[in-house]
Write a structure and sequence with these properties.
Blueprint lengths: L5 H18 L17 H11 L5 H15 L3 H12 L6 H23 L3 H15 L1
Helix pairs in contact: 2-3, 2-5, 3-4, 4-5, 4-6, 5-6
């Protein structure tokens, strides 16, 4: 399977993805890769592990770290690990979607935790927003 990088997709790829999300495209029956609502952290963690099961050991280890951090609510470690994965050049579409869904899940969890008064979640949410600007 040919992989693409976020740099190769360019602005048109990002625009296409944004349009798909905004138009509320329906997913095919049985497709677990794209969801209308963010997946639960355990689901996102499982998807992340499955997407990187055949990746080289270094990136697989980073994905496993991100997965474990998401399940343990270790927000900052999860963000750092996801950012390290995103910085890689040759992600497959499945891997890219797993990272995307993990970020969505993490963001939803952070917002809920912030609303509950968790100062760690607020700090991690700011870290996540900053990482998206870079």
């Amino acid at each position: 399977m040919k992989s693409i990088t976020h740099r190769q997709a360019g602005p048109a790829g990002g625009l296409f993805l944004a349009l798909l999300i905004l138009t509320g495209c329906s997913k095919p029956e049985g497709d677990q890769n794209v969801t209308a609502t963010p997946p639960k952290p355990a689901e996102a963690a499982t998807q992340l592990q499955k997407a990187f099961v055949t990746a080289n050991p270094e990136i697989k280890n980073t994905a496993d770290t991100a997965s474990a951090a998401m399940e343990a609510a270790n927000y900052e470690q999860a963000i750092q690990s996801l950012q390290a994965i995103k910085a890689r050049q040759n992600l497959t579409i499945e891997q890219g979607m797993a990272v995307y869904n993990s970020e969505r899940s993490l963001e939803a969890r952070l917002i809920a935790a912030m609303e509950a008064g968790d100062p760690n979640a607020k700090r991690a949410y700011e870290m996540l927003k900053k990482s998206r600007r870079n």
